[in-house]
Amino acid sequence: MSVEIAGLTRRFGAGRPALHGVELLVRGGEFVALLGPSGSGKTTLLRVLAGLDVPDAGQVRIDGRDVAGVPARARGIGFVFQSYALFRHMTVFENVAFGLRVRPRGARPREAEIAARVRRLLELVQVPELERRYPEQISGGQRQRVALARALAIEPRLLLLDEPFGALDAQVRKDLRIWLRGLHDRLGITTLFVTHDQDEAMAVADRIAILREGRVAQFDEPAALFDRPADAFVAGFLGEANRLPCRVAGGLAHFAPLPLAPVPAAVADGPALAFVRPAALVATPGGEGVVRGARHDGRVLHLSVQLGDTLLEATPAPGWEGPRRDDRCGLRIASALVFPADAAD
Ligand code: ADP
Ligand code: MG
């Protein structure tokens, strides 16, 4: 199921709209993550797609069909919202059966068919043994699996997930996201997954839409967002980066008074801001910098280097064995992402 979103705007009273001309084209079968700071419009976007909220302007087409005026129940969309908890007074079985039982009489499966389908879904989410339990008798991770089974009961071809693993601890989240991605692939559905956790988005999504203040700042594959951010916001938002004020002249960014060699920059002359990933800031023995900290993450050695008044995150050059605190070093920028300062923030 493809999803085409064009010029989507939603205002709540005066002030900045929650959605401000959102454009997004999701392919059928794609797993897309919506990533952005709190308040950037992620939940509002999912609610509009689900038909739980009405936009002020713009269009949503699902499989080519404009869904304006189509009620939520008729959209064939499954959703799991963080706040959309399971019904406490219903067993796991009844929770999953719910979406089928509330169907209009003509479309409602018979009781035996409902039971068979619920059991298949509980197998699918790998908690078949829980059907008689109540939500408070199962773990948080199990509840999220059951919530997903409930969303899948109506056999949606589009799944909307709003921070479904938000309340769970890190290891359970990791297990569930891998499992979710496998489930998505097996079912051949289209998934939109809201998260504010960039590692989670990078780990599961085919493409990530970065939302900022109600707009899509960039929509691309994870590696492209990281390597070719469209603007300073995306560059600073995703991954770690040293932010270095600079001045561009004749296609080169200069970092004076810091003792760093100029780097190529394809922006107009004037004040600018360079983002340099720690891996692209190479430290070599001897020079004007001082190693203030060295930290091994199991694979790579990370250095904190003081250069003038600035503390920078850097990586030792290949062959520099065991740099230590208080060692002197020089820094070289291997690559930088440079944006004009007025557009940067
Ligand atoms: P996110 O999910 O990215 O954190 P939301 O979509 O929840 O962001 O909110 C986007 C903006 O819209 C926020 O400024 C929020 O306060 C506002 N907003 C969301 N829902 C409502 C509402 N029902 N009434 C008023 N303002 C709202
Ligand atoms: Mg939200």
From TrEMBL:
Record domain ABC transporter: where: 3-238
Protein keywords: ATP-binding, Nucleotide-binding, Transport
SMART domains reported for this sequence: AAA
GO biological process, one term: quaternary ammonium group transport
GO terms for MF: ATP binding; ATP hydrolysis activity
Keyword Nucleotide-binding tagged: yes
InterPro entries according to UniProt: AAA+_ATPase (IPR003593), ABC_SmlMolc_Importer (IPR050093), ABC_transporter-like_ATP-bd (IPR003439), ABC_transporter-like_CS (IPR017871), P-loop_NTPase (IPR027417)
Superkingdom per UniProt: Bacteria
Keyword Nucleotide-binding: yes
One Pfam family from the record: ABC_tran
Protein name per the record: ATP-binding cassette domain-containing protein
Provenance organism: Roseicella aquatilis
